[in-house]
Amino acid sequence: MKAVVLLSGGLDSATAAAIATADGFDLYALTISYGQRHLREVAAARAVAGALGVTEHKFVDITLREIGGSALTADIPVPLERSAAEINRGIPITYVPARNTIFLSIALGYAEVIGAETIVAGMNQVDYSGYPDCRRAYLEAFEHLADLATKAGVEGTSRYRILTPLIDMSKAEIIRTGLRLGVDYGLTWSCYTGGASACGKCDSCQLRLAGFAETGVTDPVPYDQA
Q1: In 10 A of CB 95, how many CB atoms?
Q2: Of 76, 100, 119, 154, which shows the fewest CB atoms inside 10 Å?
Q3: What CATH class is the domain 2-215?
Q4: pTM of the entire predicted model
């Protein structure tokens, strides 16, 4: 079974890809450079794809920095050292407007070209920092759109689905699952700030570190010592 996997290089997408591989999918990885501050994740995606042995790995460049509106794509400071209550309240400035809709649209086109009916993605609606495009309702709506908006869907030769195995998992559950499947989290990258080592203070780092702490395993990526 062919599947397109959105592979960002982060912890979640690497785990989702590993689950899909274990479930017997033949993975075609898609990594998108969108002008993100933390471009290091693209190199991480290449390393993760190599470790997983994907069939093909496509890289697509777009420029969401022309739109801005996010701390990841504009000259807006990345929030640091927010409390758990702050992280779980509201939609943060690290939300990139329409990012997942754009990514899924590109993945859908890739899937139609190679004859895949499944798109694998690491969206999560538990530890998701309030992003509206990580919710199950959104993903179900996109599946409906995919069937309406493609030649294969209209002709009835394909019925698309978005496989999100992490959707209801906590970060600790995701990490435990990945470790069981042999994911090398030292290859992944989650930090938003764009430094040579992870800051340990942005929302993404804090969620990741809390997940590792709960599992009792040390996160293998390098963190700032300050």
Answers
A1: 19
A2: 154
A3: alpha beta
A4: 0.96
